[in-house]
From TrEMBL:
Belongs to the phenylalanyl-tRNA synthetase beta subunit family. Type 1 subfamily. It comes from the Bacteria. It is an enzyme of class 6 (ligase). The gene is pheT. Binds 2 magnesium ions per tetramer. This is Phenylalanine--tRNA ligase beta subunit. Its main location: cytoplasm. GO terms for cellular component: phenylalanine-tRNA ligase complex. Tetramer of two alpha and two beta subunits. Keywords: Aminoacyl-tRNA synthetase, ATP-binding, Cytoplasm, Ligase, Magnesium, Metal-binding, Nucleotide-binding, Protein biosynthesis, RNA-binding, tRNA-binding. Gene3D superfamilies: 3.30.56.10, Bira Bifunctional Protein, Domain 2 (3.30.930.10), Ferrodoxin-fold anticodon-binding domain (3.30.70.380), Nucleic acid-binding proteins (2.40.50.140), Phenylalanyl-trna Synthetase, Chain B, domain 3 (3.50.40.10).
Amino acid sequence: MRVPLSWLREYVDLAADATPEDVLAAMVTVGFEEEDVHRFDISGPVVVGQVVSLEAEPQSNGKTINWCQVDVGAANGGVRGIVCGAHNFVAGDKVVVTLPGAVLPGPFPIAARKTYGHVSDGMIASARELGLGDEHNGILVLADLGIDAPVGTDAISLLGLDDVAVEINVTPDRGYAFSVRGVAREYSHATGASFRDPAERDFAELQPGAGHTAIVDDATPIRGNVGASEFVTRVVRDVDPSRPTPPWMIARLSLAGMRSLGILIDITNYVMLELGQPLHGYDLDRLTGGITVRRATHGEKMTTLDGQERTLHGEDLLITDESGPIGLAGVMGGGTTEMSESTRNVLIEAATFDPITIARTARRHKLPSEASKRFERGVDPLVPFVAARRAADLMVELAGGSLTDEGGALFAEVFVGDIHLPEGFVQSLIGVDYTDAEITDALTMIGAEVTAAEGGWLVIPPTWRPDITDKWSLAEEVARIHGLDRIPSVLPTPPSGRGLTAHQQGRRRVADALAAAGLVETPSFPFATEAENDLHGSASGEHLPSIRLANPLDGSAPFLRRSLIPGLLQIAHRNISRGLTDLSLFETGVVFLPEPGVEYGTDEVPPLGERPSDETLAALNASIPPQHRHVAVLLTGNVVVRQPGRTAEVAGLSEALDAVRVIGAAAGVDIDVAQGHRAALHPGRTGVLSVAGVEVGYVGELHPDVSAAADLPGRATVLELDLDGILTLATPRAVAASLSTFPAATQDVSLVIDADVAAGEVRDALAEGAGALLEGIRLVDDYRGDGLPAGQKSLTFALRFRADDRTLTAAEATEAKLAGVAVASERFGATLRD
């Protein structure tokens, strides 16, 4: 809501030196959010001038300009020569002159410049050039606005262009603040300034006349509420729609975010902004018979003010006459009875409509409006008559009309139930020791009626606050009025034993370790095709069950993924297509692994208003397929780019195995690699990953056909691990081991074994036989070729021995090594290589 400060000052005592920032700060203290400050983008010198003379000068381009002599006052240089292309003024008229140095909206700086053979020393301004409207019907003649000011007067202040508006964010539950009345009241609450309610007007006539009554015929009320509970009309005759809207009203409407549309419509908009009550004006002479408020019939149509023909719904509330629909109630009027330049008699409508009906109609027809925005939040039911009379008075004053006794009124009894506020409730809920006087004063300030009752108070909320419905709402008002800064900021004490679980900590360690190793985390959507699930979700590529979504985001990928690899392939393809070819990507995410023959999902949804029973929760959990959290890595392109003195190094299996070791170290497990096979990976370049003999994933180079299908140039290496599985298999490790002060003894051993024996199994046999003295073992060579029998290979291991209490001798290290060789020989027939 945008509120001009000059308008705000009419209804609340605003300090003369109060800045927009001061007003916004005050509004924040009572629970509103500040948005912006709005001003006219205009600066002086802009003054009142009087045309002394003008000479019409035809030009070669067919245009006729006026060479004018304009008196702008002695203080501003006296008479100045100005070129003007408009012709709607004569000598003697007073106009608005922008002198050199002024800046108009645009920005459009004004300077003396030569044009049409003259030096134009300023510009005579139109209303549009000053920011007072969109129409450009010639220059602004002050007499047409009823203004007669001395020559040289500052026109910026004269026309209200020095006004400024503050904008606040109004939450849906506080619709009363969509008005100057509501904002002025809240500013009064924030500062204690005196508030003058614009709805409390002293009218000589308190009831409308007997003509033009309305009938409400609502056959399908919503929630038992009729569509219109109040309907007030007033008639103003002999209006002059050609009269200009006063500059002060245009300025206020513009700052409030609305453009001027003519004096009659401007008045209805002005009153709506002032009181928060939407109004509608009908051309009385275009009405046929009386007015009936009813619901639309099936297939009924009407044309709204925006020129659109709309097919109506049976829930839409209509304003009709004998000719049919003439308005969508509370949303937009109809085109057949709209006010125009030929309107002479006006019927003003002010009503109270059901908020739900208006909200549904506005959304159904995609037709949000300033009126619907207020009706759907609830308007004050006591304001319609006041608003109709206020608009009628302005039409008399500004449009030359005559207020008649015609009109009608349909009033419903306004009843607001009381709320019992127990003594001590506010203090216990808010956590502040308010006194009883502070509580009653705050509630009285917002307009509520407070009476003492047994054990507390009975509170009747004001009619403009439909959001106050219970004791919790009342407590919130007390806290808001007395300052939210009084509420203590106390952090709750967490119970012991809470925090991240061991699995959650492990997941974070793995993700952090991969990121620290230089990989980039790239989350993807959990959707895949059935073919992708079959290829990447199984070792042999056989068909496995997948969960199909009932309403997929992407019809080409309607299944939940069984693997993270398809998502990484899509991300890699997208990056490569944009020129990023060296990629090291990883993702941690959930995969969905339904069991064959099991039906998942349920059509039974428990009610929302109560907690489901344990049996219902168990059934819902059983309807969800198993979900495992995996971690996957994709490497493609170069791991080291080409540079002086070093060739490029392509990412491959060694880098993928490094990533496996990083994951294992972060998760707290030792991951073993053995030769394996997967349909999506290259034969002979695939490894099966296991922990303590349990298979947990795979690593390898993508099959060339799979890589080509994903539009990846060159090779790509991937790995995928069951992250939940390896975290379950992890065993607690010491934070740090003691360091021995004795030196290590190193020995190498080369063993000849059958080529089909896994190196990892030989390593484990050596380690088992070497015993406690063995500190570390690693494979350093795998030789196959000349000097070895066919079908055999030579594996060389580097062994490191150390004792905690002494320096080992070479004999002790050799003895331990040979013990390991003996175990390997017994299991695999290994022999020492000569």
